[in-house]
Amino acid sequence: MKKILVSLTLGLALTACSTAPVAKAPQPVAVTVLGLNDFHGNLDPTAFAGVQVPKPDGTGTTSLLAGGVEAIGGELAAVRATNPNTIFVGGGDLIGASPVTSSLLRDEPTVAALSKLGMKASALGNHEFDQGLKELLRMQNGGCDSNAPDKACKFEANYSGASFKWLGANVVYKANGTNPFQPYYIEQVGGAKIGFIGAVLKDTPTIVSPTGVAELDFLDEVTSINKYVPVLKALRVDAIVVLIHQGGVLKTGSTEKFNTVGCQDLTGDIVPIAQKLDPAISAIISGHTHQGYNCVIPDPAGKPRIVIEGDQYGHLLQRLDLTVDKANHTVLSVKAENVVIDYGQRKTNGTLDANMTALVKDAQAKTDVVKNQFVVNLGAAQIKRAADRASESALGDVIADAQLEATKDQGAVIAFMNPGGIRADLPGTVKANNAITFGDVFAVQPFGNTMAVMDLTGAQIKALLEQQTTGNNAGTNAKVLQVSAGFTYTLTLTAPEGQRVSALKLNGVALDPAATYRVAMNSFLSTGGDNFTVFKEGKNVVQLAGLADVDALVSYLKAHGAQLTGTVQNRITIIK
Q1: Considering 128, 327, 367, 389, which has the largest number of Cβ atoms within 10 A of its Cβ?
Q2: 542 φ/ψ angles, rounded to the nearest 5 degrees
Q3: Which family does it belong to (predicted)?
Q4: How far is 396 from 383, CA to CA, in rounded Å?
């Protein structure tokens, strides 16, 4: 299959780094920037629904196999052969919520791969903070002093850290306001200096374990990024590119796609951010929303500026081709492309990266024994998660049931599961005899959470469920908690805030607002994650450190998987 490119060229005539008139003869330099966002440790290629290809048996089409470090390495080599002035960067969430091959080794194989591929800098993503600040600093700087000693330094005996720099202009210590990570990075190629400013979404503390980032403040993205523009100008860079882990989606009903040139239908949190960022910024590499787009959004001066995101898992690489004038520190033009990383094509023509092939095989050899452990033959070909986080799902029902069964000896009568913690269908790809392995289960719940139980009153449970659609969970960010068998309720999205949850019942009996109920949830939710702060009001809290959520699901599947039908149980009535 031919490589698919999206091309957008903007003639900018921007004095990105100097307001003085041109005083020297121009010295143009062509610089290529390749960006990778939301990789999530996917060392192997995965299905990319954005491109459909014929099935081998001729019965229709299927998603293209795309991404993986072997094919990414092949693309980088090809681009560098054409333009040695190439810089490889990231848009955040390079690690975290990763498949078993990377996650069982604490994502050290992914960091090693990206380092060997020559990545220079990346925005921090929220998932980089999944295991807390101390562990993230270890991932940056190296060493084996980890909160997961059973996983750390098992890929290589002495983990050396990332050779690239994670950037966080808006991440500071509460105690003194200093940055634990670099706010910007400058790379010099072909005599030109390209500056990168990195930031993560300011709402990060609400979507990671709050205890892991308790000593940090996550500041406004625009203010923090703009703060460093004059710093880079003073350092006489020739162009400024923002790497930000915040993104958008194309409007409902839009016909634009990842390969639409200069898309106009972008909406979401990245739009107001882009509109306010300093005009000296030439382009914005975004992430977080796992979307593919190549759009233009006017900067504060009204000039069009590229905002690009490359789907997820390395399916697309964002490509910027800049022409800069190194003599006068100006940007002459920017061209934006989303490049499809076609694994099959590169395998066929022999252009996979051999060093990456060896690295992947090494990681697989260290994890396959665990990954390939048989769990059960499901009663259904596949149990799916919801297409969005505002719905009940068949897989969400199963996970909640598994967590309830695992905590019944602690007195639990209801279990709650956050939809964002369900990372894949079970299995991701249908298998012969509906076979499920530990790797399939791990892909569903890769965070390493443990279980917890606590007492909540009926009134607190109602207040908890109201938080599904309020605050940071309002509107398109709604998060419907998945619930266990026997618990039902109605969610009326059109009702006034605070009055959307009704008809709460446990085993057909209305919940008593004054009565106490023992409830179960994962450790992430138990500390108020995903904006469910009512959990922090719970009494008689027991953290079951020895009971991993993935193990609870494995046990449940072994006992009941053959009877599962893969259908939604309709425990939640949602009125829109």
Answers
A1: 128
A2: -125, 120
A3: Belongs to the 5'-nucleotidase family.
A4: 9
Residue 259 near residue 318 (C-beta atoms within 8 A): no
Residue environment code for 161-195, b if the CB has 16+ CB neighbours within 10 A, otherwise e: bbebbbbbbbbbeeeeeeebbbbbbbbebbebbbb
215, with CB counted inside 10 A (0-12, 13-18, 19+), is middle
Query: Which tens digits make up the pLDDT trace of 222-278?
Result: 999 999 999 999 999 999 999 999 999 999 899 999 999 899 999 999 999 999 999
**How far, in Å, are 154, 448, 471, 528, 530 from residue 524 at the CA level?**
25, 10, 18, 7, 8
Whether the upstream peptide bond of residue 54 has omega within 30° of 0, thus cis, is no
Angle between helices 69-82 and 108-116 (to 10 degrees): 20
CB count in 10 Å sphere of residue 459: 14
Contact 43, 367 (CB under 8 A): no
Asked if 393 and 422 count as a contact pair (C-beta separation under 8 A), the reply is yes
Q: Which two tokens stand for residue 37?
A: 């966002």
Q: Exposure pattern of 262-277 as b/e (b: 16+ CB <10 Å)?
A: bbebbebbbeebbeeb
> In the chain, how long is the greatest CA-to-CA distance?
82
pLDDT digits (tens, 9 = 90+) for 105-119: 999 999 999 999 999
Instruction: Give 444-457 pLDDT, tens digit per residue.
Output: 999 999 999 999 99
Length of the chain equals 576
